[in-house]
Amino acid sequence: MEPRYRTLRTLYDIVKNDPQPTTYPCRPREIILRLMTDWNIIIDYLQELEKEECIVTRQLDTLVIHITKTGIERAMALTKDKTV
Question: How confident is the model at residue 82 (pLDDT cuts 50, 70, 90)?
Answer without folding.
Answer: low
